[in-house]
Amino acid sequence: MMRFLLLFSRQGKLRLQKWFTPLVERERKKVVRDMTLMVLGRPPRSCNFLHWKDLKVVYKRYASLYFCCGLDDKDNELLALEVLHRYVELLDKYFGNVCELDIIFNFEKAYFILDEFLMGGEVQETSKVTVAKSIEASDMLQETMEEYMSKPAF
Amino acid sequence: MSFLDAGIEFAFSFDQLYDRLQSMPAPIRLRELIRTIRTARTQAEEREMIQKECAAIRSSFREEDHTYRCRNVAKLLYMHMLGYPAHFGQLECLKLIASQKFTDKRIGYLGAMLLLDERQDVHLLMTNCIKNDLNHSTQYVQGLALCTLGCMGSAEMCRDLAGEVEKLLKTSNSYLRKKAALCAVHVIRKVPELMEMFLPATKNLLSEKNHGVLHTSVVLLTEMCERSPDMLAHFRKNEKLVPQLVRILKNLIMSGYSPEHDVSGISDPFLQVRILRLLRILGRNDDDSSEAMNDILAQVATNTETSKNVGNAILYETVLTIMDIKSESGLRVLAINILGRFLLNNDKNIRYVALTSLLKTVQTDHNAVQRHRSTIVDCLKDLDVSIKRRAMELSFALVNGNNIRGMMKELLHFLDSCDPEFKADCASGIFLAAEKYAPSKRWHIDTIMRVLTTAGSYVRDDCVPNLIQLITNSVEIHSYTVQRLYKALLDDISQQPLVQVSSWCIGEYGDLLVSGQCEEEEPIQVTEDEVLDVLEGLLASNLSSPVTRGYALTAVMKLSTRFSSVNRIKKVVSVYGSSIDVELQQRAVEYNALFKKYDHMRSALLERMPIMEKTATNGPTEMVQTNGEAEPSGLESKHPPSITQPASQANDLLDLLGGNDVAPVIQTTPAAKPASAGGELLDLLGDLSLSGDPAPQVPVSQPSFLLDGVSSQPLFNDVAAGIPPMTAYNKNGLKIEFTFERSNTNPNIAIITIHASNHTETEMTNFVFQAAVPKTFQLQLLSPSSNVIPALNQGAVTQVIKILNPQKHQLRMRIKLTYTHKGSPLQDLAEVNSFPPQSWQ
C-alpha cells in the first residue's frame, strides 16, 4: 500500500499531503522535511526511485510540482509512476490544463479528486471517466447549496 | 436529500444569515485568504496575517456560527498546510460532519482526515456520525464516510463499524461496493481478527464486470490471503480463485480497445498488476496453482508491449510472480531474460528495477543471473546513485570462487571512485568476499591492504580484529605482511584502521622486519631504530586516535623481547607513564612494572601470538590486552576449523556409548560466519544476544566468548562462589578433577575446568579427553592446555568445558580418555554422575 502522497513545489512548499497510516503531527512534519530534502536534492537525470528507511519512495516532477509517494517493499514502483501519472491526468481533466496555482487555490478539490481515486493507500477506481463522473456529481450536490446561498459556500 | 428539501432548508438559513450579516462582517472567503497570504513578502508578514485570521476564526468558532463554520475550517486547513497549528479546529470538523449539508460534510471529513489522528480520543466521537452516514440515502455521503473510515479509522472504530462495511460490501451499487472493499481491507489491517466476517461477502466479488469493484476485490482477496494461511488454502481449493483470475486476466489481454481503461494501448494495467500479484501469492509453494497459471504468465511475458513504462510495469510484476511460484524452468529462464533486457534498457528506472529483482532471485537462480554479470558490473559505473547501490549489492552476491579475481578488480576500482556513503558497505563486502573466496593468502592480504589504504577511514571498527586474526593465521607470509604494512605506514598514518593493524603487526613481527628476510618480495632494510621511530611517531602524532596510541604503545612494548634496543623502549614506556590519557597511562605503568619487578616473566608474556580460533569478533582493545600465552605450543592449530573432524569423533563416542540420549560433542567451535555457524553457535549461546540476521556486512558479536579462544584459563568471575570441586575419575594413576564456575553472562552455562594429573612415574602423552552429555544439554569443549601430563603430579593438563543447560536437568556426563603410557596406548570410558547440584541448578 501507499503510505503517503505529497505534493510540493521546487521551493519545498507543501501543496498537498495525504497520509494513509496514522502518524502524529511531529512525525508527519519530519517525513515531509525528509522527503523534500531528499527529492529536491536529487541530480536532474536520476531514476525516480529512492530508499528511505524501510520504504520505497517514488517521485515524479510535473512542471513546478513534485509528486512524491512512499510505498511498501512489496509494491510495484513502475506502477506507482503510473498511479501518479493517472492522478495528474485526473487533475488535468478537472481543472483543464492544470497548473500549480489551480492546486494552491483549490486544494480541497485536489483532495476530493484524490479521495475518489485512492483509498487506504490503494487504487479505488481504474477508469478515468468514472472518477470524473463521481466528482462532477458530488460537486453538483454542493453547488445546489451555493446556488441558493447565491454565493460560494467557502 | 432532494433539491426541494434543500431549497426550503436554505430559505430559512438565508434569513438567519441576513440577520447575522447586520451584526458582523462575514469572514473572508477561502480564495481571498489564500490570495492575501501569498502577497506576504516575508515570513513574519505571513505569520502576522495568519495569526489575525486565526483569531477571527477562533472567535467565530466560539460563537458556534454554523453558517460559516465550513468556510472557517477550510481556511484553517489551508493554514495547517502551510505549517501552522490548527488543533483548535478539531471539534469543529466533528460538528461539520454532523451537519446535514453535503458541503459541510465534505470539508468536515477532509478536516478530520488531516487534523485528527487515532491517538487522540477525540476521533472516536466521529464513530456515530460515520455510522449514520454509512446508512445515508445519498451514495456520495456514504462514500465520504467509507473513505474516511478506510483511510484513518482506528481499531476501535473499525470494530464498531465493521458490520456496516460488510453490509455495503454486498450491495449491488458498484460505487459503494468498491469503496466498501477497500474499507474492509483497512479494517482487516487494523483488526485482523475481523477477517472472517468478510469472507461470505467475497463470494461473487470477482464476477463483477465493473473494473473498480474488480480491482478493489482483488486487493481485498490479496490482503486476506497474505494474512491468513487458512484463507489462502480456502481460496485456492474451495473458491477456485486461480482459474477465475486467469480468466479475467486473459480477457483483459485479449479484449479489444476499451477507451475507459486504456493506458498507452494496454487495458487496465492497474488491474493486471494486482491480479499478477494475487496469483503470486496463490501460486507460491503450490504446484497445482502454479501450473494453472503457467500459460497466462507466459502469454503476458511475451505479448506485453515494452515501449512504454506501463508495459514494463506489468512485465516487472510478471517476472516477480514467475520467480516466486513453482514455475517450470523454461518460464524462469524467460523471466531472467526479461530482466537481462531490462538491464540494457535506456530508462534508468527500468535498470534499477531489474537490479532489484535480480538481487531477489540471485539466491535461487544463481547461474542464470551469473550470465548477466558483466552487465551488472557495468552498472557500477552508472551515474545514478540508486543504481550504483543496487549494482554493488548484486555484485557481492555474484562473487564466487571462479570469478573472485576479476570481480575484486572491479569492486576495488569501484571503492576507489565511489561516494563516501558507499565506502563502508563496499569495504565490508570486499572483506567478506575475500575471506570466503581468496585464492591465496597473499592475494587476501594484498586485497585487504588495498582496501585499507584507499578507504581506510571508512572501514568498520570490527574489521581490525578480524584482520589481525587473519594475519596471525597466515603464518607463511608474516614477513611479507609486516613489510607491506610498514611501508604503508611510512606513506600515511592518517587512516586509523590501517595504522592499528600495522602497529599490531610490527609489534608481533618486528623481528622479521629487521631481519631483512622476505619470501614474497624484495626485502627492505630497516633498522630497529627506524621502526621505533615510526611507532613513537604514531604515539606523538595528532592524527592518532587514543585507540591507535594504545596499539602503538603495546607494539613498542612487545618489541622489547624482539629487539635489542631495550633501553630505548624502557624510556618510551616510562614517558607515557604520566600521559594524560588514562588508558595509555595505565598501560605504560603496567609495562613499566613489567620491566622493574616482573622482568623474568616478560619474555613469556610477550611471546608470539598463537593461531587463533575464529570464535567471535569484538572491539580491538580486548584483543590487544590479551598478550601471548605461557604455552603457545600446547594449542593445536585450529585453522581451518572444520566440522567433519569433530563429527567423526562424536560418532565414535556415540557408537561406544551406544546411547540414543547422548548429544554429539562439538570439539572445536565452527567457523564464525553467521550463515554457517548459525546452528551450533546459536544453540550454544541461547539467551546471549546474537544477531541471527545473515546479512553479510554485520558480523556476529559474542561478548563473553572471545577471550576463550585465546586462553584456556577460565576467565569468568566465580559468581556462584564455592561450588565444590569433584573428582570425576581416578584410575591407573590418572586423576581428573572438575572445578566449577558459572558464567557471568548466562546463568544457564556452567563452566567446568578439568585438571588431569598423573601420579605415576612415567608421563602420559597424546592425552585426549572427550565428553558427551544427554540431549537436553549442549557442550562445548575448548582446547586443552597440553596433551602431555607430566609424571609424579608435576603438572596438570587443563581443559575447559562449557555446558548449556537451559532446562536445568541433572548433569550427567560420559567421558572417554585416551593416552599413551609407558609406550602403549590406553583408553578408558567412565560415567560421571555425582555433580554437585549447584553446578546445574
Automatic annotation (TrEMBL), chain A:
Keywords associated with the record: Coated pit, Cytoplasmic vesicle, Golgi apparatus, Membrane, Protein transport, Transport
Gene3D superfamilies for the chain: 3.30.450.60
GO molecular function, one term: clathrin adaptor activity
Residue ranges annotated for the AP complex mu/sigma subunit domain, each copy included: 1-140
Family annotation (InterPro entries): AP1_sigma, AP_complex_ssu, AP_mu_sigma_su, Clathrin_sm-chain_CS, Longin-like_dom_sf
Keyword Transport attached: yes
Superkingdom of origin organism: Eukaryota
SUPFAM superfamilies the UniProt entry points to: SNARE-like
Pfam name, any one: Clat_adaptor_s
PROSITE patterns: CLAT_ADAPTOR_S (PS00989)
Compartments (UniProt record): Cytoplasmic vesicle membrane; Golgi apparatus; Membrane, Clathrin-coated pit
UniProt entry tagged with the keyword Magnesium: no
GO biological process: intracellular protein transport
Protein topology in the membrane: Peripheral membrane protein
GO CC list: AP-1 adaptor complex; clathrin-coated pit
Assembly mode: Adaptor protein complex 1 (AP-1) is a heterotetramer composed of two large adaptins (gamma-type subunit AP1G1 and beta-type subunit AP1B1), a medium adaptin (mu-type subunit AP1M1 or AP1M2) and a small adaptin (sigma-type subunit AP1S1 or AP1S2 or AP1S3).
Family according to the record: Belongs to the adaptor complexes small subunit family.
Protein name: AP complex subunit sigma
Organism: Paramormyrops kingsleyae
